[in-house]
Amino acid sequence: MAERTDTRTRLLDASVRLIAREGLQALSHRSVEREAGTTHGSTSYYFRTRDALLEQVVAYLAERDNQSISELTRDPYFREPRGPSEIATVFAQATERFLDDSRETTLARFELCLYAARKPELQERLTSWRGFLVSHLQRVLHSLDLPHPESGARMFAAMLDGILFTAICVPEMMSHEEIEKQLNAVLTACAYAGSEWDGDVDPLAGNPFG
């Protein structure tokens, strides 16, 4: 059983590498087997169709992302009240890991998200994937004592995706300093998420935390 599980994981890892390096058009049962160095027919043994393979790649990446974000947001650091600049520093470092050590995963995720826009059957898994991220971020935002952490977490998740997407596509626009600056700005704006903002205060201009 352990050998079978290992082969399945090798095939999924190979799929992620292929998608990140060459795009979804390069993904086939045979190309995954070549990338993984497994025998002919091994991919179809675990994933009968290409759609089944894609669905399991999404689930696999979601599980890995969920574990990484969970480890980050459960850090004892967030058990104490923190200011937006402190949290921005931590998440800027985490974002850089997604762009360096986990670059393949990040590229593959964006490829799959764009593909899923035309494949409703994948959207449910992506919605669950996004739900994990928002719930973890909500835990972090509780340390800021925000009035509306759920709304803030959705805003923060959208901003993180935007930063990662821009950094992948136009890396020269996203230095570490720029990433931290933008995260600090959105964490400040999160204080107003879901509130009845009347327009008298620019959430990006001031600091609602005093």
Q: What is the CATH domain class of the largest domain? A: Mainly Alpha
Question: Which structural class matches the secondary elements?
Answer: mainly alpha
Named at the architecture level, the CATH assignment of the largest domain is Orthogonal Bundle
Measure the end-to-end span: 57 Å
Counted up, domains total 2
Q: Could you estimate the helical fraction of the residues in percent?
A: over 70%
Based on Cα principal axes, name the global outline: elongated
**Oligomerization status of the protein chains:** single chain
Percent of residues in β-strands: under 5%
Find the CATH superfamily of the largest domain: Tetracycline Repressor, domain 2
Mean pLDDT: 84
Largest sheet: none
Order of helices and strands: HHHHHHHHH
Characteristic key phrases:
single chain, 210 residues, mainly alpha, Arc Repressor Mutant, subunit A, Tetracycline Repressor, domain 2, 70% helix, elongated
